[in-house]
């Protein structure tokens, strides 16, 4: 497979397309706002006027968009990917989305003779640019093996997690774990500041021990430095946490820590901070100190 269709050229998607182009793939791209794809077109990608056009002329189509509703419209809507994809086409959704929607897309794709995988990613914009993303895939294992060279152009740690929806379920586990780790780091910084300690020095010390985490050293630390530029937008994290809460409830579970962090982030979004990075959670704890 050398002709790849790509839908979604935001912060993550554009960087991932560049890595595929570096690996020698011929890229056909679509984005709702063409201007966001302009730098990729200047670098040699081909423009498609619609998702359907991407699907018609490519051996594989990859999507990474905002919300489950966007994914559903792209795959199952009128003039969507599955309506135009030929038999034997591979479709890979890398959006963090609903496990049940991934299963629905898989079944409809199978009915049409199309190979569908859900393969959300973790690693943020830094990992997308460096080609070091962690990729969590669900679907048929033989389909995973067929698209593995494509995934390897974008990520360094690539895991086959199981059947349809397994990639999305695993990504939700990741986001659930991040919620607690990020909140704990932000709360620790807040206490350090209140107690009169040098919070930067504290973070440098405790991040080397049992409390250390990526969220502490790379995300909360940015907030402490006053940098709220998004590597991952707060509004998208809120979406992910809601998906985790809904998926847990469907299994009869109750995620109390996740629910609390979701509530805290919701307060920040209401204040207009949804497009800041997730390190903006530090502002919640400072405001309540």
UniProtKB/TrEMBL annotation:
One of its GO terms (molecular function) is NADP binding. Residues 3-162 form the 6-phosphogluconate dehydrogenase NADP-binding domain. Pfam families: NAD_binding_11 (PF14833), NAD_binding_2 (PF03446). InterPro entries: 6-PGluconate_DH-like_C_sf, 6PGD_dom2, 6PGDH_NADP-bd, HIBADH-like_NADP-bd, HIBADH-related, NAD(P)-bd_dom_sf. Belongs to the HIBADH-related family. Gene3D superfamilies: N-(1-d-carboxylethyl)-l-norvaline Dehydrogenase, domain 2, NAD(P)-binding Rossmann-like Domain. The active site is at residue 171. Residues 165-285 form the 3-hydroxyisobutyrate dehydrogenase-like NAD-binding domain. SUPFAM superfamilies: 6-phosphogluconate dehydrogenase C-terminal domain-like (SSF48179), NAD(P)-binding Rossmann-fold domains (SSF51735). This is NAD(P)-dependent oxidoreductase. Keywords: NAD, Oxidoreductase.
């Amino acid at each position: 497979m050398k002709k790849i269709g790509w839908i979604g050229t935001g912060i993550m998607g554009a960087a991932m397309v560049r890595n595929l182009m570096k690996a020698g793939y011929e890229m056909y791209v679509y984005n709702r706002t063409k201007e966001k794809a302009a730098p990729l077109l200047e670098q040699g990608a081909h423009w498609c006027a619609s998702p359907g056009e991407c699907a018609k002329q490519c051996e594989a189509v990859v999507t990474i968009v905002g919300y489950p509703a966007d994914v559903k419209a792209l795959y199952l809507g009128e003039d969507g990917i599955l309506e135009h994809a030929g038999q034997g086409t591979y479709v890979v959704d890398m959006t963090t989305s609903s496990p049940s929607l991934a299963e629905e897309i898989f079944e409809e794709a199978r009915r049409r003779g199309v190979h569908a995988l859900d393969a959300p990613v973790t690693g943020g914009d830094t990992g997308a640019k460096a080609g070091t993303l962690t990729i969590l895939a669900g679907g048929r294992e033989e389909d995973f093996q067929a698209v593995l060279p494509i995934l390897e152009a974008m990520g360094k740690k690539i895991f086959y997690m199981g059947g349809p929806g397994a990639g999305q379920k695993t990504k939700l586990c990741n986001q659930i774990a991040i919620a607690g780790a990020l909140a704990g780091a932000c709360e620790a910084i807040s206490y350090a500041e209140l107690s009169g300690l040098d919070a930067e020095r504290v973070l440098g010390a405790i991040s080397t021990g049992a409390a250390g985490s990526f969220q502490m050293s790379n995300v909360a630390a940015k907030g402490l430095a006053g940098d709220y530029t998004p590597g991952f937008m707060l509004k998208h994290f809120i979406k992910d946490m809601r998906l985790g809460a809904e998926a847990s409830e469907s299994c009869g579970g109750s995620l109390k820590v996740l629910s609390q962090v979701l509530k805290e982030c919701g307060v920040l979004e209401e204040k207009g901070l949804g497009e800041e990075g997730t390190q903006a959670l530090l502002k919640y704890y400072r405001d309540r100190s």
